[in-house]
Amino acid sequence: MPSDDEIRQRLDAMPAEKRRQLAEALDQIALLDDLQSGKCKRAPEVTMKAIQGDPESIYMRSEMYQKGWCIAKDLDHFHSDLEQAATLGVASASSDIGIYLLRGDAGYKRNIPMARAWFEKGIAQGNQPRSLLMLGALLLSGDGGPKDGMRGVHLLEQAADARETDIQTSSRALAFLASGYIQGDLLPRNLSEGRKYALRGARQCDAASMNIAATSYALETPPDLVDAYAWANVATAHGDDATNADAVRIRSDAEKRMTTSAIAQAQTLSRTLAVCLPK
Length: 279
Known about the structure:
- The protein is built from 15 helices and no strands.
- It is an all-alpha fold.
- 71% of the residues lie in helices and 0% in strands.
- The chain is globular, with a radius of gyration of 22 Å.
- Helix 12 runs antiparallel to helix 13 (225-235).
- The longest helix is centred in the first third of the chain and has 22 residues, at 16-37.
């Protein structure tokens, strides 16, 4: 772990804009910790700024009403604040509304065409990664409106490029593109194209992408079972329970068709695939 002096030197070496962004991110983390923990020392600050019309504070207050952080839960006030924040230009609020409408939860009735409209708003307000991901997927599937494969892929690629601001959404977009090309359901089947996206996701420590990469090797003609086994084996160290179960299944399916020497080769290969550190 770097010393305090080393940390200070690194901060001093940062461009001013990067330092400002980091300070804002750390302040946001501290604010969320205060509200979630029930300390509520900064709740009056949020409330006052919201009353004064600060869009981000209105958005934060909507979450307080939804989660019951420092104030009583209130669905009507949650909706009112969330929609006001979105109207005032908070792209994350627009994405939230779109996702709630898509799923039919948080007090919103399911309405996919309206969800599309909110995702469009989130994109217009600043290419919000979740809006790029969700609208891209809807354009590929045609749910709630017309299909547009070319724009759908473009939006998903933009979401995939958002690693610096939202690595989780970036990984989901990469996995979606990888799966689409490999399964050949929403996109023309192309194993090499799908694997390209899957390996990008794997470098971001995304176990789902590792599983998709493994599947792409298993589907080759003839199948590359060594690589399939190796990637599934790596995935078992990085996913949640469901993703790890998929990895074990993919590895087991490959193992049944492999010789003892091929399994040993795959196990050796998996130790060289140091794409990221295990959890």
